[in-house]
Amino acid sequence: MKMVKRVVLILSLLAVFWGSPQQTRAQLAALPIGSVIQNIGELAKQLEDGAQALIQQGNTALAQQQMLAAGILRQLVLQLSETYKGSLDATFSSLAGAEANVVNDVESVLDDVANLEGKTATDAQEIIYKMQGGVNQIINKIPFISHDPVFYGMIVHDAFSEIPKEGIDLELLGLNFTDDRLDNKHPEVFIAGESIPNSNLSVQEDRIHVKIPDDVKSRIGFGDDACTKQSTFSASLKVFFKTRRSFMFIPINRETSVTFNAFALTGPERFVMRGELNGILKKKTDEPATFSVRSGQVTYGCEENNSGSANYTLPDGAKEVNCTAGWVDISNTKTRSASCAVGGSTVTATGTVRGRDRECIVSDILSGGIFRAVVGRRTACNCPGGGHATLQLSGSYKLPRTEEIPYEGEGLNEQRFLNEVNVVLPSDDTKRVTGIYLLISRDQCTNVLDRINLDLPTDPSRVAEQSSVNGLFKATFRAETLHLQQVDQ
């Protein structure tokens, strides 16, 4: 209620923010009565404007309290204007006796208005009752006013209000709702034109508690159930009293009546969105793989050397590469060696082999005669053929792999909203939302009002739209943001 503070600052009606209560009353008492009345009227207008803003925000309970405060101030303006219409340039301090003390009551009422700032609807209700009592005291104190019925406004204790019901549906606030000269005749209350039985009324001088019959509730759509749509309705109050007038100094007191009208405040509907997400989880893993390649057959003869090589090209992204190299399918080989190396995306094996040695036989050359003396040696050598071998390159590596795992039924954070709401659902390399399932209900009601099943395109630049099953809402997904909006009916 910043507007209240602005008015108080401009008018200096509540100098309590800077000084003592005695200073406040002194400043207020020094103002012309006409200025005090005008400024209180402006304060009432600010309260009404603030109440309209609260209605648009969906805070109907606090809005009706603020409207009621404005109604109390307007009645104060009316009573003061009528009483002091011939003395608007005078000050309260210039008045004598009890009238001068009215300034104390006015200051107390204005202080109550300032205390409304930042209060909940429940806390504000107690302040409203105090304001009502303060203005009633002023009305009963100031002179020259016929104490006719006064009406400030109505409080609705429905399912949408933060104010506890306490067994009643409506509360009408004012003054002089009964006249003892008419044996405190009961006022008549009408809801949407329907007369309410006296048995459903609890009448006091300054307030009337009303219990709306069930059939009337059903007809007007009274919000006694959080699952029903909040609706507005009219209420009228007819109060009976005796006039206090005279003609030629002869009192003329006859029964008369006055009718006051009010309307239940209705703000935008409040909803709750619950949902589930379906999508794909992208899980990155390292998949092991092996490889094995061979060179062509390498051939060689006895005591001959030869070499071979083998190559393997790794796939993109291969890592943690290991390799081994060796000769296989070996025949008639004396020695062999092999090695491997990794260079970039290529694994290379190289190796050499050598053929077997020749096989030689040594024989002696003998002389003739009895003594057979050895006179020399002769060598015969043979070379086994068919020496061959194959170079084999083997190894292992790991290849990064993305595995897509579907998921469903992931809970979406509950969202409360008036007529629209935005929820950011970002996607990244590890997760992508493919579908959204929404359930919409009225606030404080568990019954499902409507539902939407929205499938999302794989292309993130595209827009997805879907109307709800009952046509009450529309969902749009654009740029990773879900927008849910109530559709005008």
Average pLDDT reading: 84
Indicate the multimeric state.
single chain
Count of DSSP strands: 25
Total DSSP helices: 7
Shape: rod-shaped
Estimated structural class: alpha+beta
- Uncertain ranges: 1-23
Radius of gyration: 50 Å
User: Which percent range fits the helix content?
Assistant: 10-25%
Cα end-to-end separation: 33 Å
Total domains, how many?
4
Strand content: 35-45%
Largest sheet: 6 strands, antiparallel
Entry summary:
It is built from 7 helices and 25 strands. With 489 residues, it is of the alpha+beta class.
Descriptive notes:
The structure is a single chain. The chain is of the alpha+beta class and 489 residues long. It has 4 domains: 1-144, no CATH class; 146-267; 272-280 and 406-486, no CATH class; 283-399, no CATH class. The protein has helices at residues 2-11, 21-30, 33-56, 60-83, 102-115, 121-141, 214-220, and strands at residues 150-156, 170-175, 188-191, 194-195, 201-203, 207-210, 234-242, 245-247, 250-252, 255-263, 271-294, 298-300, 305-313, 319-331, 333-343, 346-355, 359-366, 374-382, 387-417, 420-424, 431-442, 450-455, 464-467, 473-478, 481-486. The strands form 7 sheets. Strands 11, 12, 14, 19, 21 and 22 form a 6-stranded antiparallel β-sheet that branches. Strands 1-2-6-5 form a 4-stranded antiparallel β-sheet, covered by helices on one side. Strand 8 and strand 9 (250-252) form a beta hairpin. Helix 1 runs antiparallel to helix 3 (33-56), helix 4 runs parallel beside helix 6 and helix 5 runs antiparallel to helix 6. 30% of the residues are buried. Mean pLDDT is 84; it is low at 1-23.
